[in-house]
Design goal:
Elements (H helix, E strand, L loop, with lengths): L2 E8 L6 H14 L3 E8 L5 H7 L3 E3 L6 H10 L5 E4 L11 H9 L5 E11 L6 H19 L11 E4 H7 L8 H11 L4 E8 L10 H15 L1 H26 L7 H30 L7 H8 L3 H28 L8 H30 L11
Parallel strand pairs: 1-2, 1-4, 2-3, 5-7
Antiparallel strand pairs: 4-6, 5-6
Helix pairs in contact: 5-8, 8-9, 9-10, 10-13, 12-13
């Protein structure tokens, strides 16, 4: 029988960790498994002492966090097959074999538990999580990454050591759970689901509904900024341009439509800034190796030129300043009296703002690439 590692993160779980370890050891004995139990622990109570007394290996992660605990624990795993689960008693570790069997039989590379399709005991999961949070985040992740997972936030999972190494996981917080699924899907791994029962905690939950949910959403935005940033930004930008053109071509050039002109210009600026933020996010993810360099971002990073982007930004800024100077000169010509130059004044502001945004976007991308040694010059020395 190949060697198996069970890795559990723990934080003050002295009331449940012993039972979890006993259940795992019973499965090891019944199935004659050569197994090890690793506890990634940052507890202030007796959790590590209990775990060591029962034969588990206890390590102390240098950094706190759900993902950091697993990264530390998994770095010590020697098994060919790995099972992960919380040590808080919410998962029945007697089901460990159900997660190992598909791996050992070669049916899957990655096995996910499914609480939503299984059974959730009364009081085990807040209603907000059970009926809104988890289903919504699961649906978003499935839609964005074209996968079909029933419960993307189930903490009991298993995978081969080779699959884990292929995933190349990096995140240190709760988003680690989402990253694992996304990387498994990106690497075309065979994924199997196992329905399980989810039990109430005996101690207060350490989850933070909104901050943990935001971490998952932020991670998905990092991988897929298009639906979160590019699409909304483009729609707002186009709406602003359409309104601006309508007012400039067919509207009153006086002050009667001043509010409409200002509103449309604000939409244009917000749209450009949102698109720029999408570029920042996608470029950062590509440079950090969190996603593939492809499409527009690949071209941008491969052919990025600080000088060209700065020149374009400066040109737009100068256009804005030129229009602004024209408005001021016109104002001077009438003795600083009443002036009907709302459209030109707002246009000057828009060109100047976009020019400045482009300048800082160019600087940010250059710093980002310089950090990884990817300067504008990509010449190879042979």
């Amino acid at each position: 029988m190949p060697k198996v590692s069970v890795v559990m993160p723990s934080l003050d779980e002295e009331g449940t960790v012993g039972l979890c370890i006993e259940k795992i050891k019973k499965v090891f004995d019944e199935k004659q498994i050569d197994g090890e139990i690793i506890l990634a622990d940052n507890s202030a109570d007796k959790t590590p002492e209990i775990a060591r007394a029962l034969g588990a290996t206890v390590i102390t992660p240098k950094k706190r966090g759900y993902g950091n605990a697993y990264l530390a624990g998994l770095s010590h795993a020697k098994g060919d097959f790995i099972v992960i689960a919380d040590a808080d008693g919410t998962y029945d570790l007697s089901a460990t074999w159900q997660f190992l069997e598909p791996l050992i039989n070669g049916e899957a590379d990655f096995v996910m538990g499914d609480r939503l399709g299984g059974k959730i005991e009364k009081g085990a999961m807040p209603k907000l999580h059970q009926y809104i949070g988890n289903p919504l985040l699961t649906a978003i992740l499935n839609r964005l990454f074209k996968i079909k997972i029933s419960d993307t936030h189930c903490g009991m999972r298993s995978f081969t050591k080779a699959a884990y190494e292929k995933m190349g996981l990096k995140t240190g917080g709760m988003e680690f759970a989402s990253e694992m699924i996304v990387e498994a899907a990106r690497k075309n791994m065979r994924i199997k689901e196992v329905t399980i029962t989810y039990y109430p905690r005996s101690a207060p939950s350490k989850l933070h509904s909104f901050s943990d949910g935001w971490r998952h959403l932020r991670f998905m935005m990092l991988y897929k900024p298009v639906p979160f940033l590019f699409v909304p930004g483009t729609l707002v930008f186009l709406l602003g341009v359409l309104l601006s053109l309508t007012i400039l071509l067919w509207g009153d050039s006086g002050t009667s439509r001043m509010h409409s002109v200002i509103f449309s210009s604000i939409l244009v600026i917000i749209g450009v800034q949102t698109i720029a933020t999408g570029i920042y996010v996608k470029a950062y993810a590509a440079v950090q190796g969190l996603c593939e360099k492809e499409g527009f971002i690949k071209k941008l990073l491969d052919y990025h030129s600080l000088e060209k982007e700065l020149v374009l930004g400066v040109v737009l800024l100068l256009v804005g300043l030129a229009i602004g100077v024209k408005v001021v000169l016109t104002w001077m010509s009438v003795g600083f009296g009443s002036l009907s130059e709302v459209n030109n004044a707002v246009m000057a502001m828009v060109f100047a703002a976009i020019g400045i945004q482009l300048i800082f976007t160019a600087i940010f991308l250059s710093v980002l690439l310089l950090e990884r040694g990817e300067t504008e010059s990509q010449d190879a020395i042979t």
